């Protein structure tokens, strides 16, 4: 009982500190919402808010995995292509091969997870930088999706498959429920488990972590597997929302995930970050994209705005690190 109270006390203290650290981006998010509510008629409607949450769900899955990867001191550029691989493969197995949707979903998620297995195996067992490894698997995944679909969209007509991305549990969209579960699970891993502490330790100082008895190779391997698993389910959700497998889906999604993580205060150098900050970052990216669409901003300018947001987030992280040294 005393141990439970101590854990809750530590959690309460870390939550209070975390909210204080995230006060700046919270104010920015609130200000953005207020401005969009003033300048558009439809932003503050319940229908649009639900739409924002639904659109945010795919990025949230990627960002959960990316948070662990970046805290570890790595990067994963392949998660966007995993969306295409798992979504196209699932659609193809149902439509072209006649597999039951449940089995097709499991096989497609397994294929996406295998990308994470490969990334984790190479990165943990060699000195090849994660950027290079995941850049390679990103291109391989994109190529596979194009070859598998013959550069065509695979349409799907299946109730279970469609429900995952378009169904509702009461008044809440199914993808939002899945997103909440994923955030809760990853949040608990990082905050309450030994494995979570090992992720921070390896990201903060790998050599010191190894000397303290932590198996850094296994930690790295497992983190990349989890990132692949989360990305593969994001691919199922994305494909389900359109009832199709599209070879170009998820293009650039890894950038949105990285932006959300960095906006949330996770350091690119590793060892520092929280999932709560990442969730706020996901909200900012989702609201920003939704707001620009409502304002009728051209898609080309949207890329520019997103790039500026990422640059600002990285600069803030750089300045914060520099101030801590002096």
Automatic annotation (TrEMBL):
Transmembrane segments annotated in the record for this chain: 23-44, 56-73, 103-122, 128-148, 160-192, 221-239, 260-288, 300-319
GO molecular function, one term: transmembrane transporter activity
GO cellular component, one term: plasma membrane
Pfam families cross-referenced by the UniProt entry: BPD_transp_2 (PF02653)
Superkingdom of origin: Bacteria
UniProt membrane topology term: Multi-pass membrane protein
Compartment(s) where it occurs, according to its Swiss-Prot or TrEMBL record: Cell membrane
Sorted UniProt keywords: Cell membrane, Membrane, Transmembrane, Transmembrane helix
Cell membrane keyword on record: yes
Protein name: ABC transporter permease
């Amino acid at each position: 009982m005393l141990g439970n109270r101590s854990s809750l006390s530590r959690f309460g203290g870390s939550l209070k500190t975390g909210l204080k650290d995230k006060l700046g981006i919270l104010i920015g998010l609130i200000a953005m919402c207020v401005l969009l509510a003033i300048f558009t008629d439809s932003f503050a409607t319940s229908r649009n808010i639900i739409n924002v949450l639904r659109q945010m769900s795919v990025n949230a899955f990627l960002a959960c995995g990316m948070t662990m990867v970046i805290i570890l001191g790595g990067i994963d550029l392949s998660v966007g292509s995993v969306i295409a691989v798992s979504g196209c493969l699932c659609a193809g197995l149902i439509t072209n091969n006649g597999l039951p949707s449940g089995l097709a979903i499991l096989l497609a998620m397994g294929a996406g997870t295998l990308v994470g297995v490969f990334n984790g195996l190479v990165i943990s067992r060699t000195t090849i930088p994660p950027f290079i490894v995941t850049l390679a698997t990103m291109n391989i995944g994109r190529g596979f999706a194009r070859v598998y679909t013959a550069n065509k969209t695979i349409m799907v007509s299946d109730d279970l498959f469609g429900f995952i991305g378009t169904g509702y549990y009461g008044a809440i969209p199914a993808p939002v429920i899945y997103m909440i579960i994923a955030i809760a699970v990853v949040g608990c891993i990082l905050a309450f488990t030994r494995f979570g502490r090992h992720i921070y330790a390896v990201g903060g100082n790998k050599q010191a972590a190894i000397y303290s008895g932590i198996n850094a190779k296994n930690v790295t391997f497992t983190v990349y597997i989890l990132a692949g698993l989360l990305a593969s389910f994001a691919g199922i959700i994305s494909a389900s929302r359109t009832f199709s497998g599209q070879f170009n889906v998820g293009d650039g999604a890894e950038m949105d995930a990285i932006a959300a993580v960095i906006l949330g205060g996770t350091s690119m150098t590793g060892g520092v970050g929280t999932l709560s900050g990442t969730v706020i970052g996901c909200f900012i990216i989702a609201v920003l994209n939704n707001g620009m669409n409502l304002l009728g901003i051209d898609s080309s300018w949207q890329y520019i705005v997103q790039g500026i947001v990422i640059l600002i987030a990285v600069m803030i992280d750089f300045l914060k690190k520099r101030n801590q040294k002096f």
